Amino acid sequence: MRSYDDFMTYMSGVISKNVSNEDERLRLEKVLLRLRDDQANIMIVGGTGVGKSSTINALFDTSDAKVGVGVDPETINIDRYEMGNLVLWDTPGLGHGIKEDQRHRKNIVNKLMERDSSGEHLLIDLVLVIVDASNRDMGTSYELIDLIINSYAHKDRIIIGLNQCDMAMKGRFWNFRENRPEPQLTDFLKQKVDSIQRRIRDTNKLDIEPVYYSAGYTDGKESQKPYNISRLFYLIVKNLKSQKAIMVALKKSRDRSNFERDDNNDGGAGYRRKTESSLLDKARDVVGYVYEKACDAFESVSTTVSSTFSSVCSSIGSFFSSFW
């Protein structure tokens, strides 16, 4: 499994091999260095017991995660998981009481409005709102969705996930042997997705289609693999900007079986192909960004620099050949 650092090293190697002009090479390396040190920040919000931790473990390789707590007094209750270039902000679940929920809401809004070290961009790159698919009382969930939509500037980077879809009808019509919903449950889940989507459209004038999934579980004696995590992962990669998407994608869970059951019923192949296609587009965008910065840095860009990045674009697929 390759890392984002490997991706930067790959690009640096191509530059060192093909760009002979030292000044050009150093300037290009400087652009890569800024990208290498950047981080992607994802906030995960949801009510108590919706499965935020299990979702994180299903999506990402957390083996090297450094778990800490936000040092800012305003966000001290938001847990911070740092995994190299990927940082996850796990917010407390709502539903503990009026005063405590008010404090949590304030912390969430403060974090959503926080800017990165440059002061030019918002710190949070994407927000994943997790809803319990088995919960029929959606009041708290809608309140949380409205809070995020009204507080976060990047409306196109809000994803709504309906976790525990296997329990949406109290476990009925879930095929445990094949780990998938039967048609009756699929219809119920689609109706719930439509209902939430319609409510968001009517209230906030946004068209966000939720994705239902199950993060799976392991309790020591029994376990159940995730369902539709491949679709959720694809949406995260798709909705993130260029290098941020690569940072996130290269931290995906190493357990391939997490991505094999989804609503395409094709062993995960469909969403894997979509993820790969989106990832290649993002990688080419990164190459284009570095090339654009090279154009800004030099009065004239040598044909060697141009051909070098053409070479990177044409061969970038080989870097991701072992992605899954």
Characterization of the model:
The N and C termini lie close together (8 Å). This protein has helices spanning 4-18, 22-36, 52-59, 98-113, 139-151, 183-204, 229-239, 242-249, 269-297, 303-319; strands at 40-46, 66-69, 79-83, 86-90, 126-132, 158-163, 174-175, 180-181, 211-212, 217-218, 223-224. It is of the alpha/beta class and 324 residues long. Helix 1 (4-18) runs antiparallel to helix 10. Helix content is 48%, strand content 14%. It has ten helices and eleven strands. The strands form three sheets. It has a seven-stranded mixed sheet with strand order 2-3-4-1-5-6-9, sandwiched between helices. A two-stranded antiparallel sheet has the order 7-8. The chain has a two-stranded antiparallel sheet with strand order 10-11.
Quick synopsis:
By secondary structure, this protein is of the alpha/beta class. Helix content is 48%, strand content 14%.
Order of helices and strands: HHEHEEEHEHEEEHEEEHHHH
Low-confidence stretches: none
Radius of gyration: 21 Å
Q: What quaternary form is this? A: single chain
* Intertermini distance: 8 Å
Assign a percent range to the helix content. Answer: 40-55%
- Number of helical elements: 10
Largest sheet: 7 strands, mixed
Please state the structural category: alpha/beta
Q: How large is the share of residues in beta strands?
A: 5-15%
Number of strands: 11
Strand order of the largest sheet: 2-3-4-1-5-6-9
Outline type = globular
